[in-house]
Amino acid sequence: MTNKITTVLFDLDGTLIDTNELIITTYLHTLEKYYPSKYQREDVLPFLGPTLHEVFGNMDPDRVEEMVSEYRAFNIANHDELVKEFVGVKETVQTLKERGYKMGIVTTKRHDVTLKGLRLMELEDYFEVIVAYDHVEKVKPDPEPIFKALEQLGSTPEESIMVGDNFHDILAGKNAGTATAGVAWSIKGREYVAKYEPDYMLENMKDLLTILGE
Questions:
Q1: Which of 62, 150, 158, 205 is 20 to 30 A (C-alpha) from 176?
Q2: What per-residue confidence (pLDDT) applies to 1?
Q3: CA distance linking residue 166 with residue 107, whole number of Å
């Protein structure tokens, strides 16, 4: 690695916390209400990553707000029961914090729900900056959220790495000029993430320590 990495940006869902089951269950609940018996589990996997407005807007522009509200109500009600932790995440961010790395979250989730997940997994104290859906004009893969996080952290793209489980995380990093790391535990599969050619592929979050020379 040519530049010394000082700053690590993470996606939240499917990267730092295991919200996969929560998101799938919430989509199935919401779609069952509006489109009975039309959607199965495998049908909703492509919806993990894009914003709710993108997903529901493509289905029915007239009812998008109604569907988003239904989704959010169920999601919040079932959040703490269905969210789980990924092995190696907490130890890794703890180590990075102790070694002086600057860390931020860049997510397409709303800020309040992001905090809910971080608090549940006791990760909140490790991150100096959160750039969420409600903080930006354009979401990932646009570089705006990454630039916003780096500005708040006082970092440049050249000294930063973006870590995520989905195409828009990797592309946002590339568009912003950071290094990129995909996570092999993405629910869409290692091969799916690899297609977008991240600079690194993590089999476990602890691999990040090796990449950073820690």
A1: 205
A2: 46
A3: 11
CB–CB of 48/24 below 8 Å? yes
Q: What are phi and psi of 131, to 5 degrees?
A: -110, 110
**What span, in angstroms and rounded, lies between the C-alpha atoms of 61 and 64?**
5
The token pair at 109 is 């989730």
The 3-state secondary structure of 42-89, one letter per residue? HHHHHHCCCCHHHHHHHHCHHHHHHHHHHHHHHHHHHHHHHCEECCCH
**Which tokens is 28 given?**
């199935």
Provide the 8-state DSSP code for 200: E
Predicted TM-score of the model (pTM): 0.94
| Cross-strand pairs, 164 | 182
Active site annotation includes 142: no
Of the residues 11, 18, 165, 169, only one is catalytic, namely: 11
Stretch 184-207: mean pLDDT:
97
- Mean pLDDT value across residues 64-70: 98
Q: What distance in Å separates the CA atoms of residue 83 and residue 17, rounded to the nearest whole number?
A: 7
| 50-60 per-position pLDDT tens digit | 899 999 999 99
